[in-house]
Design goal:
With 317 residues, this protein is of the alpha+beta class. 34% of the residues lie in helices and 26% in strands. Strands 3, 4, 5, 6 and 9 form a 5-stranded antiparallel β-sheet that branches. A hairpin with a 2-residue loop joins strand 4 (100-111) and strand 5 (114-123). 32% of the residues are buried.
């Protein structure tokens, strides 16, 4: 018995020693990388998940050809989100335009250990009645239907991110930042191809409780601030999942910052997580993981250093 206990203690000591030297080796490896190589590697790692990392800004965003596009959107996704550690405020804007019901939805909140925001552009294949909105499946906007979107997400702690791009699903996720959805302020702007679509969206936004004084229009662009959403009546089970998920998200954020404490830079922290705890890295990247059944494995693209070092797609002043 004593021999078995001694062997167990020696094995534990050897494991701790191995882990210590492995950790030191990984830290040294990351510190020896230049910034361009780090950005190249991160973008290569994020691509199969449907995201790109903006090294100069320290956040992830979705790619135009992300695999999530095939899943489209249904209200059920938002309903299930708190069960997967995604707690957010949502602002769906429905409107009819040229024989189809369109949906442009805005989200802001906590996605696991990431604070983030989204703008999604979808449409049904026909006109829908209001009673059909929650049951209908919406397809993502095609390439020729994508709109010019921009957003600025600010937290109470001072973190702020800007992004502007022609997209069907514009996103921004800040790793290692914890926020309550009510603490976030999303300034969004959407550009439309013609006045007809702009006015249809404007009427839909007004139906969601936004008065004309809170909406700004310039040419074919409409902008507004999404801060305090319309009061939502969540069921008991949903309220439980939201609170539980936020408790877990806060804990995971603290663990992420503690485990990666040798580094201050976001890309260094994420790469350390990838080398040291790869299963945690995969969990970090599954920002919309209830779409996973639609995911088809794709080959990684070869890194192109010059492309990874492109400027951040910030909103033009």
């Amino acid at each position: 018995m004593y021999v078995a206990l001694l062997i167990l203690l020696l094995s534990a000591f050897a494991g701790m020693l191995f882990g210590h030297f492995r950790r030191k080796k990984i830290i040294c490896k990351i510190r020896c990388m230049d910034k361009c190589r780090k950005c190249s590697l991160l973008e290569e790692l994020a691509d199969p998940f449907g995201y790109v990392y903006h090294c100069c800004c320290g956040f992830f965003s979705s790619t135009v050809d992300a695999w999530q596009k095939a899943a489209g959107y249904t209200w059920f996704y938002d309903y299930m989100a708190p069960r997967f550690q995604m707690v957010f405020d949502a602002l769906p804007v429905y409107f009819n335009y040229r024989g189809r019901t369109w949906l442009i939805e805005f989200w802001k909140g906590q996605y696991g250990i990431n604070t983030g925001a989204e703008i999604g552009i979808y449409h049904a294949d026909r006109l829908l009645s209001e009673t059909e909105y929650r049951a209908a499946h919406f397809e993502a906007a095609k390439e020729e239907e994508m709109l010019s979107c921009s957003m600025q997400l600010c937290t109470e702690k001072g973190a702020c991110v800007k992004i502007s791009e022609r997209h069907w699903w514009l996103t921004a996720f800040l790793p290692g930042v914890f926020s309550q959805p009510s603490e976030l302020c999303l300034k969004a702007a959407v550009g439309f191809p013609n006045r007809e679509m702009l006015e249809a969206f404007y009427r839909g936004l007004c139906r969601e409780g936004y008065s004309g004084e809170r909406i700004a229009m310039q040419n074919l662009s409409l902008s507004f601030t999404f801060h305090q959403p319309r009061p939502q009546r969540y069921g008991l089970l949903t309220r439980f999942h939201r609170r539980l998920s936020q408790c877990l998200n806060r804990m995971y954020c603290r663990i992420f910052l503690w485990v990666t404490r040798p580094f201050e830079c976001v890309e260094d922290r994420i790469l350390f997580l990838y080398y040291y705890l790869p299963f945690c890295f995969r969990k970090l990247m599954r920002l919309r993981r209830f779409h996973r059944r639609c995911h088809r494995k794709r080959g990684c693209r070869r890194p192109k250093c010059c492309r990874r070092c492109r400027p951040c797609p910030r909103e033009k002043a």
